[in-house]
Amino acid sequence: MIPEIETKSLAEIEALQNTLLQKQIAYLMQHSPFYQRKFRAENIDVKSIQTIADLQKISVTTKADIQLYNNDFFCVDKSQILDYATTSGTLGDPVTFGLTDNDLERLAYNEMLSFQCAGVQKGDLVQLMTTMDRRFMAGLAYFLGLRKLGAGIVRVGAGVPTLQWDSILRYQPKYLIAVPSFLLKMIDYAQENNIDYKNCSVKGVICIGEALRTTNLEPTLLAQRIQEKWNIELFSTYASTEMSAAFTECALFQGGHHHPELIITEIVDENNQPVADGELGELVVTTLSVEAMPLLRFKTGDMLRKHTQKCNCGRNTYRLGPVEGRKQQMIKYKGTTLYPPAMHDAVAHFNEIKLHLIEISSNDIGTDEILIRIFSEDTSEEFSNKLKDYFRARLRVTPQIVFEEELTLQKIIFDPLSRKPITFIDKR
């Protein structure tokens, strides 16, 4: 089922967003200590903010702002907060977010729309392979969304292929929610233990945390490797704690669809000016109808593209492409600019590599150095040179390659204190 607003004309969608924006601005002026100060400091007449284009009159909000003034972003008394969540701290210290009862309902609605976009229906069974604890909003959001949709949920949590397969074979879920690279470990385990995974109940996976699409919205090498071994549909979903919203692919796999009643987005350049549709820029978000901690023009640090051509699924909303990098993780290496996802995809080209960890550091002269730590079936110098040649041809860089023991990398990549696999470490 497609929400009616997503089939409306672009003019009708924009009109709705403008109305919701005006309400959110008025709410911030009345309830947010941080934005009250910002509006005064910048001499913003809130009544002049009538349209999305008017947002350019207001400066952006950064992660540093929230870290420095976390409590000033709250718009409700603590007695109204029913759930506390924190960001994962990928680009610095984590910050705290609170959700009211209405915010939790909004979160459930958002995820229900996202799952419907991917084809999940009432009565389907979904295995949740990510944590719900450690103040992690995503796991809670998935649970609430599936519950609102009327789908069944198997809460297995992250990791442990043995338990994942036990649940799949025991309960027969139709969908999984998982980090895509972990699916390769699931496949390896199934092959080693004679599990007929190709004929199991799983038909699709809602994938989190890693890119499944290239810049041109073609399958990444990681996606190709998974689907070569396991004929399942892989749906990419993009979300963050700050957004309290998600962009999930439909069955045409052309980027994550926008839900206009929940969020306004801008894609901007280094000067915070809008880039042309389809051009790479940093995502800036304005949340709509959030009570506890709404954000206005928040810079996410994620570099991606907006795709505005109409999707054949029937939705008129634009889509967001994959995160091609994080603003603060940009690497400048011998005249070449690149981001970690491109290197992860290059590593995925080689079936021999079972685990990898990319480390970036600065050398004595202040330039970036790239080290890729690998656990591989082949540790020969010939294979190392083959890797370097592929990187040189594909990315125009030649990283340092080091082969390591499986257990050494496993302890770092699958840190029990981390919500996600750690495959990139920035030591600069």
Q: Portion of residues in helices?
A: 25-40%
Quaternary class: single chain
Strand order of the largest sheet: 4-3-5-6-7-8-9-14-13
**Major sheet, described briefly?**
9 strands, mixed
- Structural class comes to alpha/beta
Structural features, described:
By secondary structure, this protein is α/β, with parallel strands linked by helices. It has eleven helices and 21 strands. The chain has helices at 10-31, 33-41, 63-68, 101-117, 137-149, 161-171, 180-192, 221-229, 340-347, 381-395, 406-413, and strands at residues 83-86, 96-99, 125-128, 152-155, 175-178, 204-207, 233-240, 245-249, 256-257, 263-268, 281-287, 298-304, 306-307, 319-320, 325-326, 331-333, 336-338, 353-362, 368-376, 400-403, 424-426. The strands form five sheets. Strands 4-3-5-6-7-8-9-14-13 form a nine-stranded mixed beta sheet, sandwiched between helices.
Secondary structure elements and pairings:
Elements: H1 10-31, H2 33-41, H3 63-68, E1 83-86, E2 96-99, H4 101-117, E3 125-128, H5 137-149, E4 152-155, H6 161-171, E5 175-178, H7 180-192, E6 204-207, H8 221-229, E7 233-240, E8 245-249, E9 256-257, E10 263-268, E11 281-287, E12 298-304, E13 306-307, E14 319-320, E15 325-326, E16 331-333, E17 336-338, H9 340-347, E18 353-362, E19 368-376, H10 381-395, E20 400-403, H11 406-413, E21 424-426
Parallel strand pairs: 3-4, 3-5, 5-6, 6-7, 18-21, 19-20
Antiparallel strand pairs: 1-2, 7-8, 8-9, 9-14, 10-11, 11-12, 12-15, 13-14, 16-17, 18-19
Helix pairs in contact: 1-2, 4-5, 6-7, 7-8, 9-10
